[in-house]
Amino acid sequence: MIDVQYLTKTYEDLNRGPFVAVDKVSFQVGRGEIFGLLGPNGAGKTTVLRILSTVLSPTSGIATVAGFDVARHPADVRHHIGFVSNNTAIYDRMTAWEMVEYFGRLHGMPRQTLTKRLESLFEQLRMNEFRDIPGAKMSTGMKQKVSIARAMVHDPPVLIFDEATLGLDVLVARNLLGVIRSLRESGKCLIFSTHIMSEVEKLCDQIAIMHRGRILDTGTLEQLRNKHDQSDFEELFFGLLSRHEQQESSDWNAEYELDTAIEFAGVEK
Questions:
Q1: Residue 153 near residue 119 (C-beta atoms within 8 A)
Q2: pLDDT tens digit string along 64-76?
Q3: I need a surface site. Which of 51, 76, 166, 231 has the fewest CB within 10 A?
Q4: Chain centre to alpha carbon of residue 170
Q5: What is the DSSP secondary-structure string of 14-40?
């Protein structure tokens, strides 16, 4: 359902030169699978997800979603995905029902089909008790459910959750994780981005650990523990990040020494 090959995103910085936000990232996600993208803030997770959702264009590499290339067929990609983040806007004057219905119409759903879909979604997500409450009076948990419903209204095969539990209280976050599990059971292809390791441990079938634009390692939780001989996932995570930073520092020092030697040799000549 999702196939990413050597995806790269570079920004031009007038002061520092090119800045690589995503560096040759590759992974695949299948139907009925939750792929966890784990990394600290600034790791490049959101950039990857924005490329997959066609908000950003890649500098190089290939990404396909449900068989459609994100660069060549963005409209088809958008029709096949739903995107949920922690800061999805909710219109203050629209009720929960009106909000989800509005996005269904944007997707061109026939009125009768849309009404049936709304009834099903509001029952599935337990939203009927606040279906007529306007956004301005919703709690954080209510708003998040509306965000999920509007992402699901057109029944996309692929769903992306970008730091979706950030800022939620424990009960609301727990309910959200339950919804994501049920989506997996229904055969959806899901990407779950977070920096909270316990969520990844409980939820994800495959895990990619990302830092400074690169995927450092990927696999199931058991595969990663066995490979790195570390049962404590938190220690495994920080160990990978530490080794990556040490390697980058070593590479930079070696490059600096080489440049210095070349410059010195030029002066000697």
A1: no
A2: 999 999 999 999 9
A3: 231
A4: 21
A5: TTTEEEEEEEEEEEEE-TTEEEEEE--
